[in-house]
Amino acid sequence: MSKALYNKTTVFQNARIVDPSRNMDEIGALIVDNGVFMASGKEAHNQGVPEGAEVYDLEGKTILPGLVDSRVFVGEPGEEHRETIESASHSAAAGGITSFLMMPDTNPVIDSVSLVEFIKRTARETAKVHVHPVPAITKGLMGQELTEFGLMKNAGAIAFSDGKKTIENSAMMRRAMTYARDFDMPIMHETQDKWLNSLGVMNEGLLASWLGLLGIPKEAEIIPLERDLRLANLTQCRYHAAQISTAMSAETIERAKQKNTKISSAVSINHISLNENDIGEYRTFFRLSPPLRTEDDRLSMIESLRNGTIDMIVSSHDPQDVDTKRLPFEDSQTGAVGLETLLAAALRLYHNGSLSLITIVRLLSTNPAKLFGLDAGTLKQGQNADFIIVDLEEPWVLSLDMLHSRSKNSPFEKARFQGRVLQTYVKGLKVFSIC
């Protein structure tokens, strides 16, 4: 990321300022100096314009903390044709994401100090946004031997995950949680029982039968999740369910949280925006893992966001090239790009009254920053000036050629949105502008 910062005071006036870290939603100003926030909200407006400041009038626009996406897959190293750290950062900036957590599913797997250092170095040199490596829990994502937690933490890891893989061995999972607790590091885990999941390609149910496709039962997600939650209670580690998709999973987490405050969870934007019916005529861009569920499950995910059971929304950005998607549904690769549509899709819940704007920003920015210990998710004085300017009302339609990602496998092709990122700033530096 470029080291250039604003070297003079900049004032953004007359904007709607939303900052969940201070429960703020008000008309005011934002003052930035040398890459950090000096003041925001009515307080900043009342201070007036500092002498010599550069001033922008943002009447009708909204300023939010930069978004924090805690589940992003990148092809570098090994599959740069799908996505590089640089291209992912361009895509993130266009979507208003100023920090993202990079999963270890690369080739080679991010499971050593040298690979963590490679990601950090490449991000420093090429990325427009903050990139935080999340190395593997087990070597090679094989579920058999733990990686060096302490050494990788010292190298810059902020959590551990086996990415798309689920650790089957309960003793291994307990050991991983114990080590993570000792190093005060979160364990992020995808829960998919591979034996129940192995042949299925979509949600098990009547629709799968109609389409003649093998289904994946909801129990494939819930059984390993229930095991993990019991082990998390046993070890008292910081446990994060990487993405859930069913009402039963949400109910299980809600019960677990009543006993253990160190548990958190996420849902992907796809699973609160889409359901299994969107697969339609075998549309492979809608083949995801976990699969799109029923409409009742989708509504349950939204309710769980509203009541605090689920702590954050992620893009689950997973770029795939055309060759792996333009295949028969059962042969196609799972995954969808999502960095650039994360906020726009989430704003649908604001416009239809499902969630307040401050709640959406909390789920997309403040909560993940807090849970993973990042200097982000806030407009507080003295913090890095990572923020975005948004037009909440602007209508637009997504075409795939608009995407900055190297891959174009978006389930939101031709989708209509209301609300758009206009500009993105990282440490006071403009890293994206729509015009």
Secondary-structure blueprint:
Layout: E1 10-19, E2 24-33, E3 36-41, H1 42-47, E4 54-57, E5 62-65, E6 67-72, H2 85-94, E7 97-102, H3 113-126, E8 130-133, H4 149-155, E9 160-161, H5 170-182, E10 187-189, H6 194-197, E11 202-203, H7 206-211, E12 215-216, H8 219-235, E13 239-241, H9 247-257, E14 263-268, H10 269-273, H11 295-307, E15 312-314, H12 322-325, H13 342-351, H14 357-371, E16 387-397, E17 416-426, E18 429-433
Parallel strand pairs: 1-4, 1-5, 6-7, 7-8, 9-10, 10-13, 11-12, 13-14, 14-15
Antiparallel strand pairs: 1-2, 2-3, 5-16, 16-17, 17-18
Helix pairs in contact: 5-8, 8-9
Explain this structure.
With 435 residues, this protein is an alpha/beta fold. The chain has 2 domains: 10-64 and 383-433, Urease, subunit C, domain 1, CATH 2.30.40.10; 66-371, Metal-dependent hydrolases (TIM Barrel, Alpha-Beta Barrel). The protein contains 14 helices and 18 strands. The strands form 4 sheets. Strands 1, 2, 3, 4, 5, 16, 17 and 18 form an 8-stranded mixed β-sheet that branches. The chain starts with 9 loop residues before the first strand and ends with a strand. One of its GO terms (molecular function) is metal ion binding. One of its GO terms (cellular component) is cytoplasm. Residues 60-246 form the Dihydroorotase catalytic domain.
Descriptive tags:
8-stranded mixed beta sheet; Urease, subunit C, domain 1; globular; alpha/beta; 435 residues; pyrimidine biosynthesis; TIM Barrel; dihydroorotase activity; 5-stranded parallel beta sheet; 23% strand; single chain
